[in-house]
Structures are given as structure tokens and as C-alpha cells.
Here is the input.
Amino acid sequence: MVGGQLASVNSIGIYTERRYCWLRAKLIAAMGEAPTTPPFCSDCATKTQPAGGGPPAQSASRMWRSSDGKFRLDTPKTSVITDPVSQKAILLDHVKKEATIVPMPPVAPGGAPPGSTQVPSAQGQVQPAKVEDLGKSMIEGHEVEGKRFTLPPFSPPSKPEMPKAKMPSAPQASVPGAPKAPAAPGAPSPPQAPKLPTVPSVTEVWTSVKLKAPVLTKVTTSAGEQTTYCKPVSSDDPHSSVFQIPQGYKIKPPRV
Here is the structure.
């Protein structure tokens, strides 16, 4: 594999983890925006199965939620912190020690049709999401209720076209019968990135009826499927520092 292809694969892997993390955090945090939601801390085990039948990957994560609705999801390389009061989300890159703050637009009353909600994409844009009630079930002794969120296929913003510079043509003498100079060859077009299949993102969240904490989460995207089982370990209110940017992290402006 050449260097350019390897860099492309690494970029896709980083993007995939952030995308999974963002979807899980936003949809789970949206369930805890009521002021009476109890706090919790859960340890989670995740299995990621890439599309195409590659070997699955195992990873651990942790979730916190405060009594005022703040939420944090940690993965080995990425964290997402959401705050419904300030209507902002913080994306932490633990490899680069960077933090990105993006807005979380609220849903206007009556603005969303029945059975749908508004979920920001990774770029902060708002996309309609279909919500289905899956009823109640039992998982590992917990009575749970499930919801399925279906988001339309993710479409990254198109890159602006570079203006074409016009070079002044050199004056040519008008000589009868003289052959015309051949046109200069055009610059080669840059290689196009492969298009991802247009598969909607589907997330199922099964939440404990008693603890109001997610027990099982399944995220399905064009990159594959990720299944996470979480075990609540504490019902105490987390320390405020859990929802703050760590010292030494550089604040990076969001992409526009």
C-alpha cells in the first residue's frame, strides 16, 4: 500500500470513530435533557464490525450524565461533551490534545413533525431524523425501553471551486499561411475521492426504565455496525470537571 492510500485509510478510521462517538453521544444525551433526569456513570464495552466482513474490534468507553443534563462520552481517542443549557457540544481529540466547540441548535416548539427530531451532524448542520418507538424489553435483568433513530445519508459539504486564472495570450503576428501554435496542455485534474455508499445512519438506544441510563446502543452506518453494552456503576452526580475542557488542550475552530 502506498503512502497516500495508507494516510487515506487512517483518516477514514479517525473519521469513523468520531462519527460513531458523535451519534451515540448526541442521541443518548437528548434523552437526558429533562431537568429531573437522574445522574449516572456507566462503563461500556463496544464491538465494532466494519462493513465488508473485516475482523471486529473491541474497545471500552465510559459515560457520565449530571442531574442538570450535561453528558460526556469517552472513547480511547475521542470524547464528546454536550450541555443542553449552553446549547453547545465539545469534541475532544485526545491524540492531538485539541478541543472543538460546536453549536447545538434547539428544536423550536412545533418545528419538527411527529415522529422526527432535529440532530446536528458532525459539521453542526441540522438534519431531520425519524424516531420509532420499539417498546419495552428485558436486558441483563434491566427493564428497558427502546427507540430507533434514522438519519438521512451523511453528505459532506462540497469544496468550493477554485477560480480559473486567465493568462493573457501573447500577440501573434498575422502571417498568411502560417500554422497556428498548438494549445498548451491543460493541468491534470486532481484524483477524486471514492464515493461512500448512501446508507442512512440508524441508531437504536435501549434505556433502563428505572435508571434512565442507556444499557444497549447499536449504531449502523455505511462504515459498519457498532454495538455497545453499558453497565451502570454509580448514580452520584459527577464532578463538574468531567464536563470541562482538560488543561493543555488547544481550542480549534469548527469546520465551516
In short: The two ends are 32 Å apart (CA to CA). The first strand starts at residue 40 and ends at 50. The longest helix spans residues 3-30.
